């Protein structure tokens, strides 16, 4: 397989959605617990990145495998899905997917032996979501909870695991500490969930033709466009709440400046929802939000 095809198959461009929560979780641990385990953190970064690519690859080949073979879906099979466009065999697709996931699993299990069982339970949840998101008899992505699982798993779980790996030897997991991490990660959760929501909004007609009953199928596009817009507001409120309870540095509030470009992009998306033209706006919003969050949180650590 050519490198260009491989990178397209694993959707390397989407890796930013897991890298930034990783950075944010690490900064959270430094701010609140004043320590970092750099070696373990690096291994987790590699493991999570490999698994993110494996999940994307699994999504692509599962979508191709389960798409109805009729005239209505020929365009999806031959011109849209990366497996069909590049004529990737199912065997090759599976080999790549399970190889990436296997290496990630080995690294994850080794980290469990060093940090403790909580990481095992976090990992089991994450791997289960990663597979069943597109695999199994009823994939998560084909139902009404795709946005929740994508936002929660990437925006919160990666953030939380990054915190745990840096603090496993100085702090225990409690309901209070978990709730604090959840609030602090809220901005990333909503921004990442909106990537999935924007994708489903743009693909609504195609999804219905393929038999997918996403949240759009039940609540309709007008309602979900409002949810898309207000989700960013909810994320910014989480940011303010996290600063108020003292788990984020006050300078993190400068992240609110990102609301200006996010507002412009959101208005543009609300006016036109076309996959090849405006879906990128949701990715831009998530990148702007999480990157500015990381920068201003980092500045908060310095000053």
Automatic annotation (TrEMBL):
Q: Which residues form a coiled coil?
A: none
Task: State the EC number(s).
Answer: 2.5.1.74
- Which ranges does the record mark as transmembrane? 12-31, 37-55, 96-113, 119-136, 148-168, 180-202, 239-260, 281-302
For this protein, the record's Gene3D superfamilies field holds: UbiA prenyltransferase (1.10.357.140)
Where in or outside the cell it occurs: the entry states: Membrane
Q: Predominant location of this chain?
A: membrane
Q: Where does the record locate the signal sequence feature? A: none
Entry keyword set: Membrane, Menaquinone biosynthesis, Transferase, Transmembrane, Transmembrane helix
Biological or metabolic pathway of the protein: Quinol/quinone metabolism; menaquinone biosynthesis
Name any one GO molecular function: 1,4-dihydroxy-2-naphthoate polyprenyltransferase activity
Family matches, as InterPro entries: UbiA_prenyltransferase, UbiA_sf, UBIAD1
How is this protein situated with respect to the membrane?
Answer: Multi-pass membrane protein
| Name this protein carries in UniProt | 1,4-dihydroxy-2-naphthoate polyprenyltransferase
